[in-house]
Amino acid sequence: MSSGSWGCRRAEMLRLLLLLLPPLLHLGPAAGQLVYQVREELPRGAVVGKVGEDLALEPRRLASREARLTSGSGKQYFSLDPAHGLLVVKERIDREALCESSASCFLSLELLVEQPVQVHSVEVEVLDINDNAPRFPRQEYRLEISESVVPGSRFPIESAQDPDVGSNSVQNYQLTPSEHFGLDLQDLKPGSKLLELVLLQPLDREQSTHQQLMLVALDGGNPAKSATAQISVRVLDINDNCPEFDRSIYMVTLLENIDPGMLVVKLKAFDPDESSNGDLLYSFSTYTPQKVRQLFTVHAVSGEVRVNGSLDYEEDTSYEIYVQAMDKGSVPMTGHCKVLVNIVDANDNAPEIVLTSLYSPVSEDAQLGTVVAVLSVTDLDSGINRQGRAQELTLML
């Protein structure tokens, strides 16, 4: 067996003996406990504590008494410099890897000294440094909020995580200025916060369909480290707008001999709501007389008004068509307009001659100027198609 193996074997035997028979051993001066603090991430060789000085042992005595460190953990983070009586860093220490987010983090060691045998407990507290920036679980949070939601409503947002502890953990949040949204932060327990987006003012989808916000998380380090995340708010529509025609009255002039199927006018209504709340159907309103419904049609989708029957100026010189646009919301809303159609006369009627009076028989010796008959001439057309009003004519010799 090599001398090195024997030394390790002897140390283990001494350790076991100390555990099994502590009352029977005389340890010389009373064994003590040493407590040190060290910041994480220190380089190798960084001094943790002056072991020799704290135990009142000169460095040469530590060497002669074969002072050495033992640890219950698998990895040795510290070593003893017996020549100078110092406890130094042997391996890089990552506090977050050792203790995660625990408020305290200790590494336990034992300093074993022989001649006489003494065991000193060594506790090293690993102090946190601000070596980690906060992180949000995701880069973007997407929310869908109805425009009917009342101010004061709250929407939880996943908080940022920071493996550092104490003041080096997340301490504050900031939101880009917004007239509609604010932040509320509540402490649930140490190291845990409830983050909520709060609606400050009512949303109006017709004014803004989306809201883009920037959320910033800040830790308490100096300088502070930060993380950012986007909050994308999609405003959901409710049926809160009535359809509106681009004009309230449409005025159209048609010849009375226009063919059935010809376009009269194309109506256009607009509803700022979206989806079915903004889809429109056109139809006659309840105010449209049945006669007008027989002479004209309204296309439900296009809003086209067309001639459906024969128009006759001599019967009606104008028509009033009342049209509505109705959306497809669960509680439909409607808008209304009026189409005023003026009919222009066409020369579609021949004059009529009516014999109103006849003097018969006529004597052969009747003088010139004697009335033979009275005729009446009428024309149902108007204007130049009529050339004046109905006249009464006298037929004379």
TrEMBL record:
Which residue intervals define the domain Cadherin in the entry?
Answer: 77-136, 137-245, 246-353
CDD domains on file: Cadherin_repeat
One GO MF annotation is: calcium ion binding
Keyword check for Iron = no
Give Gene Ontology CC terms.
Answer: plasma membrane
Its membrane topology is listed as: Single-pass type I membrane protein
Its GO biological process annotations read: homophilic cell adhesion via plasma membrane adhesion molecules
* SUPFAM superfamilies recorded: Cadherin-like
The alphabetical list of record keywords is: Calcium, Cell adhesion, Cell membrane, Glycoprotein, Membrane, Repeat, Signal, Transmembrane, Transmembrane helix
Cellular location(s): Cell membrane
Q: Which domain of life is it from?
A: Eukaryota
Tell me where the signal peptide lies. 1-32
Statement: the UniProt record of this protein carries the keyword Cell membrane: yes
- What is the protein's name according to its record? Protocadherin alpha-C2-like
